[in-house]
Amino acid sequence: MRSSIAISELFTSLQGEGLDLGAPSFFIRISGCSIGCKYCDTKYSWKKGKLWDIDSLVKEVLKSKIPEVIVTGGEPVEEKNLSILIKRLSDLETVRKITLETCGHIFRDDLKYPKLKIVLSPKPPTMGVDFPTETLEKFLTTYEQVYIKFAAYDQKDLEVIKEFAYKNKNLIRAPIVIQPLEVPFEDYSYTSKRIFELVISDRKFINDFEIKIIPQIHKLIGLK
């Protein structure tokens, strides 16, 4: 019996956020999420999507002729067949890099593949969910190719980020990305400017860590 995964959508775009900003990428958006973030920008992906067998997903990746694949959600770590998909993608000669985007609430240790990079995107208090400190620490301890991309809307969010960063300074190996959080009641460019001002005002923080403030560029230029 073939392994299958419920998919919300497949599409081609640029990587609009984080350290790989601007890279042409093929996106696999896995459906389903139990976290329930208040201002999630892909709530449509919470519903169960179309079932795809993994062979067919691999064919779509090959057909795209794009060397970078992003597996996102929803919350892809909740998908039981995720490890099978990652392995199949990692085995493809034409795939250069696989990026897995997760909020870090659910830990898995079965994703150790050579081309995989894990991006942890924990949601701040503004999103109305608990901050997943323990599972983030497990990811950082278990995987080498991993970095954190913190979303932030206000000073309260930044204080949670700083507390985690200082507590786990020995585990953080890559630059810390701070991503302004898009909310429906404020213009995103305004939020981005305000987060920059809040971060840059804390000279100790930006000297103690390598910080990169990176807005979601696809939101600013109108891409998916």
UniProtKB/TrEMBL annotation:
Official protein name in the record: 7-carboxy-7-deazaguanine synthase
Pathway the protein takes part in: Purine metabolism; 7-cyano-7-deazaguanine biosynthesis
Keywords: 4Fe-4S, Iron, Iron-sulfur, Lyase, Magnesium, Metal-binding, Queuosine biosynthesis, S-adenosyl-L-methionine
Residues that coordinate or bind S-adenosyl-L-methionine: Y39, C40, D41, G74, S121, P122, K123
Catalytic reaction annotation: 6-carboxy-5,6,7,8-tetrahydropterin + H(+) = 7-carboxy-7-carbaguanine + NH4(+)
Entries under HAMAP family matching the protein: QueE
CDD domains: Radical_SAM
Enzyme class: lyase
Record's cofactor remark: Binds 1 S-adenosyl-L-methionine per subunit. Binds 1 [4Fe-4S] cluster. The cluster is coordinated with 3 cysteines and an exchangeable S-adenosyl-L-methionine.
Positions bound to [4Fe-4S] cluster: C33, C37, C40
Family designation: Belongs to the radical SAM superfamily. 7-carboxy-7-deazaguanine synthase family.
Cofactor needs: Mg(2+); S-adenosyl-L-methionine; [4Fe-4S] cluster
Gene Ontology BP term (one): tRNA queuosine(34) biosynthetic process
Residues that hold substrate according to the record: L14, Q15, G16, R29, T72
Binding positions (Mg(2+)): T42
The protein's assembly and partners: Homodimer.
Functional description taken from the UniProt entry: Catalyzes the complex heterocyclic radical-mediated conversion of 6-carboxy-5,6,7,8-tetrahydropterin (CPH4) to 7-carboxy-7-deazaguanine (CDG), a step common to the biosynthetic pathways of all 7-deazapurine-containing compounds.
Species whose genome carries this gene: Desulfurobacterium thermolithotrophum (strain DSM 11699 / BSA)
